Every structure is written in C-alpha cells, then in structure tokens.
C-alpha cells in the first residue's frame, strides 16, 4: 500500500503541475507535432535514410491502471481454465509500452516504397501485489514488417498520405496453458487533414483453426480491423482507437481513448481508458474496462 500511495502521489503531482503551468491547449513552443509525412518519411524532403530508430506507437508508463474486472482465471475458448483456482491478482497494476520502428530499405519498387521494421512491447505488472511477489501478469511482444507507399489525393478535404501492407506477429512468450500468439497480414491506410490523422488497418489472420491454435476465435473478440483517429495541437494529443470483429451475429471488439498533454519538452501526462476485449493477449476473450494514469515520453 505504501508503494501504491507513492505512485498515486507522483501521478497527481504531475497532473497538478501541468494544469498549473498552462491552460488547456495553450501553445508550448518546445513541443513538435509530427505530420504523417514526417513520421513515415513519405515526402522526399523528409527522407532520413535507413537504420535510424524512430518512435512508432505511444511510448508510455502508467503507474496506476485500474481494472473493473481483472482476469484471475485465464481461459481460451473451448478449453478448461488455465488454473484450478483463480489467481489472487489485484485490480490495480502498472502498465507500460515501448515502441519503435526503423527503415530497413528506402525507395524500392520504382523508387516509391519504403520497408520498415517495427517493434512494440506492452506489460501489465502487478507491482503492488506483494503477496504474489509482484509478478508480471502479462508481457506482449509485437514485431512487424511493413511496406509503405506514399499517396497523393484529396477527398472531402482529407489528403491521402500512405498505403501499405505488413506482416504482424504478436505473442506473450509463455508456455501452455497460458501461451497466446497469432500472425496477421495487415493493410495500412492513412489520411490527414489539418490537425487530424486517421489510420485504417484491416487484417487477415494466418493459421486460424489449426490444432496448435492457443487462442481460438481471437479475431471474433479482438477484431478483424481497427480505426485510429488522432487529433494533435500544440503538443496535446487525443487518440481514439476502435477495434471490431466485423461480425453481424456476435459483434465484439474494443475502444481505447488516450489523452496526452505537454508537461516539458517531450514529456507528457497520459490518461488512458479502455473498454472491451483484448486489452492484452491473455485477456483476448475477457471483457473489462480499465483506466490508467501516467506519462508519455515521445511523439509518435
């Protein structure tokens, strides 16, 4: 409880300092907001060559994440519970995410395409659970390979910026009965208008229905596509991520909201709210709502 109170104090201190230092959406000159072209080096003027580390998805740590229904007894569809008795997990834990990408091939295929490698890792850490020796409840590893091509068109004021295709692997690196992994071929499409960026990513799962499938029907719960709408202004970011199974019978999915606001340079306060299935892989078929408070470190 002492560590929990300390973490709560730190988070409240960060939020209080930021709100005192600036009004909502007040300009902060040290914050640089990246366009889609700058993030993915789409235009010739933004090309930076290969094998340079770049930010990818949000890079954050949430010292406090609370779940209204923590998963104490993981269970795959069609299987028995992984453990005979529920695990005594606490509803409050730490969550963090690391994410970066690097270009491995520039201007291939008639000089138009770039090939990127990405890596994202998320962790749910029961750091306040002294009774269980503060274990990592779940670690997810997500490497991917993405071919991106620039676009130039306008529809209703939105500028088409890029299209691509990628191979995505996600796993938790655990042994049975709590092993979880899947492979996907993902399409990438993005448009931009003023301070708005919109990403659309439908995907096709590879290897569904095999005898070695350790998370059957994951696409029916986590989804078959996602839409990510991002609004950025003066260092503030509002991010709405929606995933859906695209099923008319039993429609599942999730929605996640992130709000990041500037504190100093690239340091931001971070609020995250999630509701639905698949907060992580071990919870792919587990419905919950989570609220997290913390900090983000870089623009993505």
Automatic annotation (TrEMBL):
Signal peptide residues on this chain, from the entry's feature table: none
Residues the record marks as active site: 169 (proton acceptor), 171 (nucleophile)
Annotated localization: Cell outer membrane
Coiled-coil intervals: none
EC number: 3.1.1.32, 3.1.1.4
Cofactor: Ca(2+)
Alphabetically ordered keywords of this record: Calcium, Cell outer membrane, Hydrolase, Lipid degradation, Lipid metabolism, Membrane, Metal-binding, Signal, Transmembrane, Transmembrane beta strand
Main location (coarse class): membrane
Membrane topology: Multi-pass membrane protein
CDD domains tied to this protein: OMPLA
GO CC term (a single one): cell outer membrane
InterPro entries membership: PLipase_A1 (IPR003187), PLipase_A1_sf (IPR036541)
Principal EC category: hydrolase
Reactions accelerated catalytically: a 1,2-diacyl-sn-glycero-3-phosphocholine + H2O = a 1-acyl-sn-glycero-3-phosphocholine + a fatty acid + H(+); a 1,2-diacyl-sn-glycero-3-phosphocholine + H2O = a 2-acyl-sn-glycero-3-phosphocholine + a fatty acid + H(+)
Cofactor note: Binds 1 Ca(2+) ion per monomer.
BP GO terms, sorted: lipid catabolic process
GO molecular function term, any single one: calcium ion binding
Residues reported in the UniProt entry to bind Ca(2+): 133, 174, 179, 214
Family: Belongs to the phospholipase A1 family.
Subunit organization: Homodimer; dimerization is reversible, and the dimeric form is the active one.
Protein name: Phosphatidylcholine 1-acylhydrolase
